[in-house]
């Protein structure tokens, strides 16, 4: 990926960052890079994620999915880091295999999928690093029950990816299911380029080697300077802008196929950096759709935002048919791709003219190689930003409270029901 931070520099108005301040920031980047390299070398928790391009074995993943490789529909049962990486990859790329990601436990939604799909031709990919996440385990029990009811032996149609030990590992062992291990030292939201993200990609027939090659190429750019490394340029700019008041980061790809990437980014950025009263709030957006929904706020609302665009150079294009309506004649000479590009340029210019900082991430096209680079590059940007903020990028203690409270409310121990609902203000307004 390439990163253009031109519009984030303070050429127009605050809260842009000046070139001089970026040059000062560069020495902090150099120190952070040393820490990151050391963490990678010593395979420390979290930093190990940046070694995945060298560590992940595509042959092992392909061999494990062999028994279910013929699936016409693949249910991936997982949530957060155990779902969004795989969804980003498979939603971005074309495949004959349909993918369904069951993260939410909304019964109506889960049921609608199970009733719509013919389960004889389906398979289950259950993923949980901890092996204890209530939503994932509940959905898995529901899905396997639906398979049984449809007369399908779920043990023949399930693959498990989980940690070394835990309830899901025990279940896999008990039923002798094909299974893969979440690599040590890799938190869920950094695991897209391991089995966690790549099992679904393998079943869909995507090029796993190219995903890893794209990531490896990005890894090669990790040097001590933000002026040489696109990932660090992005991480450092986002951090510097946040320090100047841009506490919101709107991720806005201009390719429908990358919509899920914005969701993946939201978890990465929020869970990794949102701690100790620090962090930048990620917002999910999509060009051109959100030009007609959120752009008014981005341009004329509070000066508290960085807008991150993702553009692609190549892809399928389609001509716009000519019409005899004279006001629309200008469209007849163009293609949808040209219209999209013009919309992007106009939006970028409009924000820059209003002094609203924005950054452009450029991809050649949406394919495995570029996606691998985009995922890896953003992870590296996030790790760098975590060093600059001086937070522990790789933990998420605040999420644990609600997880325990949920278990407590269901009688799963550890947490008293009274504690889970304590201090609720009694104010209810009824129709
Ligand atoms: O992979 P699992 O252990 O099931 O965890 C799934 C998700 O659970 C929690 O909500 C964590 O905050 C996420 O970081 C994690 O990705």
UniProtKB/TrEMBL annotation:
Q: Which reaction does it catalyse?
A: alpha-D-glucose 6-phosphate = beta-D-fructose 6-phosphate
> Does the entry feature the keyword Metal-binding, yes or no?
no
Pfam families attached here?
PGI
Query: Which key words tag this protein in UniProt?
Result: Cytoplasm, Gluconeogenesis, Glycolysis, Isomerase
Q: Active site annotated at which positions? A: 271, 292, 403
Q: Does the keyword RNA-binding apply?
A: no
Q: Which GO terms describe its biological process?
A: gluconeogenesis; glycolytic process
Q: In which pathway does it act?
A: Carbohydrate degradation; glycolysis; D-glyceraldehyde 3-phosphate and glycerone phosphate from D-glucose: step 2/4; Carbohydrate biosynthesis; gluconeogenesis
HAMAP family linked to this entry: G6P_isomerase
Q: Which family does it belong to?
A: Belongs to the GPI family.
Name of this chain's protein: Probable glucose-6-phosphate isomerase
């Amino acid at each position: 990926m390439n990163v253009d931070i031109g519009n984030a520099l303070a050429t127009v108005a605050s809260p842009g960052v000046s070139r001089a301040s970026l040059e000062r920031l560069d020495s902090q980047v150099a120190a952070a890079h040393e820490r990151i390299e050391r963490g990678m070398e010593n395979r420390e928790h979290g930093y190990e994620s940046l070694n995945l391009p060298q560590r992940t074995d595509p042959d092992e993943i392909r061999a494990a999915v062999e028994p279910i490789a013929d699936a016409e529909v693949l249910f991936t049962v997982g949530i957060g880091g155990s779902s969004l990486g795989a969804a980003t990859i498979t939603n971005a790329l074309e495949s004959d295999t349909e993918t369904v990601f069951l993260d939410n436990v909304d019964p109506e939604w889960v049921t609608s999928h199970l009733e719509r799909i013919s389960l004889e031709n389906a398979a289950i990919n259950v993923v949980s690093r901890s092996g204890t996440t209530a939503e994932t385990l509940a959905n898995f029990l529901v899905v396997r029950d639906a398979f049984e009811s449809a007369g399908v032996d779920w043990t023949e149609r399930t693959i498990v990816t989980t940690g070394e030990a835990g309830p899901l590992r025990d279940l896999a062992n008990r039923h002798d299911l094909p299974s893969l291990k979440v690599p040590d030292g890799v938190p869920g939201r950094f695991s897209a380029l391991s089995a966690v993200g790549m099992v679904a990609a393998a079943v869909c027939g995507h090029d796993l080697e190219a995903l890893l090659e794209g990531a490896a190429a990005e890894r090669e750019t990790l040097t001590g300077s933000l002026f040489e490394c696109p990932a660090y340029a992005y991480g450092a700019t986002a951090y510097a802008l946040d320090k100047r008041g841009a506490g919101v980061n709107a991720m806005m790809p201009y390719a429908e196929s990358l919509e899920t990437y914005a969701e993946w980014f939201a978890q990465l950025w929020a869970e990794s950096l949102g701690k100790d009263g620090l962090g930048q709030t990620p917002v999910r957006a999509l060009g051109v759709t959100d030009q007609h929904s959120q752009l008014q706020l981005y341009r004329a609302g509070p000066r508290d935002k960085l807008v991150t665009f993702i553009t692609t150079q190549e892809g399928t294009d389609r001509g716009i048919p000519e019409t005899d309506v004279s006001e629309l004649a200008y469209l007849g000479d163009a293609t949808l791709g040209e219209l999209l590009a013009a919309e992007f340029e106009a939006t970028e210019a409009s924000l820059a003219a209003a002094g609203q900082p924005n950054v452009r991430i450029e991809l050649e096209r949406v394919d495995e190689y570029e996606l691998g680079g985009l995922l890896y590059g953003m992870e590296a940007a996030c790790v760098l930003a975590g060093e600059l903020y001086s937070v522990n990028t790789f933990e998420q203690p605040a999420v644990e409270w609600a997880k325990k409270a949920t278990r407590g409310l269901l009688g799963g121990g550890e947490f008293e029901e009274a504690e889970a609902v304590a201090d609720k203000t009694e104010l209810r307004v009824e129709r």
